[in-house]
């Protein structure tokens, strides 16, 4: 260690006669070694390392990882003395040239390549032939062009320089040659696997070129289309283009991503069907956000193969058809949003297989039939919304299994029968949560008071009959803040237990057939603002 530090001191002074550069990672490695020597009570050796570091800092030009990455991508043996022929063939564009290694080449290129200098084009060709993909920078330039202009036309007098002045509102540093792509706004880069420069002690270590792992351009005024070439970013993990004005279809090539775990294309103007090829993302995809677009077609079976997906939002589109039974395959799904589409059919019992489900919102569709009793198996649910459909028959007593519920929305359907009182035995079936091993034929008495977290209950605009059960009123009193029971056929009196609902802020009960007077106990409801 002592001889090595002495060598470093001599080596440092040679900067006056050389053009050697050293990376910031190498400097960091020296600092780490010096600190280790200090902690092991070898102050003189540590001092010699620190002196070496000071000399290096003062004398050596440092080289950033992005600069080294640029050198990594450069091809030093490229012959630039070749002739290029540019071809525009309808919607396609090509470049032809003769290469000493590959012979006669005809390569499809992005439109804006016609504005590049010859050296840049040839360098890119060599990169693409040797690596089977375009360089990351060119893929992002293709992306920029597509989301700014779209892929269906070429603007007049288009140049790269002019493109810098439009699109990608407020995004900084895009398309500037001297700025590394990892510094472009919305772009996140990560290292190669096992590339951890901070912990290395190897003074000959050179940081590897970094991969683009995330594109996050939410609310940037993008108004073009999605380019298929984005899949050439082989290490992309995350795409977030929410809240823009993108149009056109989702490219089927997006099923070719190898590491993608997060897609958010919501709140755009995308059309067409959800590509079946997205099923190939099953091993990695965890979240899929496609809400508030104009997507059409059925809930494709391909989506039912995303077995690792935990979040699926297809709300506010134009989807049709039924919920397929294969939805039961999505056992890792925690949130399912299908509201405000044109879905029909019945709610399949396979929904009960989604044991990880926390939120399900399928409101404002055209579902018919009963609420399946199997919904009671989704015991982790905190938010259940089936409002604004045409669901019929009675509210299943299995609803009492869902004791973690915070929101229960059943309004605007065709539900009949009474409001469950909560003390009827659950017929015909038991679950592991409620089995009594001492009874051959166990029966259970569940109460509304088991819903200790429920804050909102809406059953208005149905065909419910009977009374407002006192068990419901005092059972939900500790937690409920909103109760909507209007536009039904409820009779009897409002129970005096209503006064126990001291947290209630909204109590909506118009257009029923209640009789008698309003109980005086209502004066205790000091937080009530809507009656």
Helix content: 10-25%
**Morphology call:** elongated
E-strand count: 29
Mean pLDDT: 77
Q: Compute the number of helices.
A: 8
Q: Give me the side-by-side strand order of the main sheet.
A: 6-7-8-10-12-14-16-18-20-22-24-26-28
Low-confidence stretches: 1-21, 61-76, 152-167, 192-208, 424-444
Biggest sheet, in brief? 13 strands, mixed
What integer value in Å does the Rg equal? 33 Å
Distance between the termini: 82 Å
Q: Helix/strand/pairing class, anyone?
A: alpha/beta
In terms of DSSP E residues, the strand content is: 15-25%
Quick tags:
531 residues; three-stranded antiparallel β-sheet
Short description:
The protein is an alpha/beta fold. Helices cover 18% and strands 18% of the residues. It is built from 8 helices and 29 strands.
């Amino acid at each position: 260690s002592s001889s090595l530090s002495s060598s470093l001191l001599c080596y440092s002074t040679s900067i006056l006669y050389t053009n050697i550069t050293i990376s910031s990672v190498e400097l960091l490695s020296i600092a780490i070694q010096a600190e280790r020597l200090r902690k092991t009570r070898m102050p003189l050796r540590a001092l010699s390392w620190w002196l070496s570091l000071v000399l290096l800092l003062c004398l050596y030009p440092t080289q950033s990882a992005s600069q080294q990455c640029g050198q990594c991508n450069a091809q030093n043996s490229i012959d630039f003395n070749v002739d290029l022929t540019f071809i525009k063939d309808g919607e396609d564009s090509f470049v032809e040239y003769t290469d000493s290694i590959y012979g006669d080449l005809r390569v499809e290129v992005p439109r804006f390549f016609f504005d590049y200098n010859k050296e840049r084009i040839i360098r890119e060709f060599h990169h693409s032939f040797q690596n089977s993909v375009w360089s990351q920078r060119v893929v992002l330039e293709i992306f920029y062009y597509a989301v700014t202009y779209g892929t269906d036309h070429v603007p007049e007098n288009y140049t790269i320089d002019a493109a810098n002045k439009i699109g990608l509102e407020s995004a900084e540093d895009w398309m500037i040659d001297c700025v590394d792509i990892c510094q472009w706004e919305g772009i996140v880069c990560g290292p190669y696997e096992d590339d951890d420069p901070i912990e290395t002690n190897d003074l000959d270590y050179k940081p590897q070129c970094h991969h683009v792992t995330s594109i996050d351009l939410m609310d940037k005024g993008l108004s073009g289309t999605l380019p298929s070439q984005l899949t050439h970013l082989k290490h992309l993990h995350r795409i977030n283009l929410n809240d823009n004005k993108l149009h056109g279809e989702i490219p089927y090539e997006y099923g070719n991503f190898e590491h993608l775990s997060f897609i958010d294309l919501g709140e755009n103007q995308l059309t067409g069907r959800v590509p079946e090829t997205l099923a190939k993302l099953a091993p990695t995809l965890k979240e899929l956000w496609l809400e508030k677009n104009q997507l059409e077609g059925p809930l494709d079976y391909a989506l039912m193969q995303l077995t690792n997906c935990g979040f699926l939002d297809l709300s506010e589109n134009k989807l049709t058809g039924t919920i397929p039974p294969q939805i039961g395959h999505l056992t890792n799904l925690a949130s399912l949003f299908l509201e405000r589409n044109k879905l029909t059919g019945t709610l399949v019992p396979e929904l009960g297989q989604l044991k990880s489900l926390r939120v399900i919102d399928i409101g404002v569709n055209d579902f018919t039939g009963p609420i399946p009793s199997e919904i009671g198996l989704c015991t982790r649910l905190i938010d259940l919304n089936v409002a604004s459909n045409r669901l019929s028959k009675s509210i299943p007593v299995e609803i009492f299994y869902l004791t973690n519920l915070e929101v229960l929305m059943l309004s605007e359907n065709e539900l009949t029968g009474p409001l469950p009182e909560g003390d009827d035995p659950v017929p015909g079936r038991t679950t592991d949560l409620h089995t009594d091993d001492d009874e051959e034929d166990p029966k259970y008495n569940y109460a509304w008071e088991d819903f200790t977290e429920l804050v909102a209950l809406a059953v208005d605009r149905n065909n419910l009959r009977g009374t407002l059960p006192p068990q419901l009123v005092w059972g939900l009193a500790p937690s409920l803040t909103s109760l909507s029971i209007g536009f039904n056929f409820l009779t009897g009196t409002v129970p005096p237990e209503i006064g126990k609902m001291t947290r209630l802020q909204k109590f909506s009960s118009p257009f029923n057939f209640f009789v008698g007077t309003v109980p005086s106990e209502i004066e205790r409801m000091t937080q009530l603002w809507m009656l």
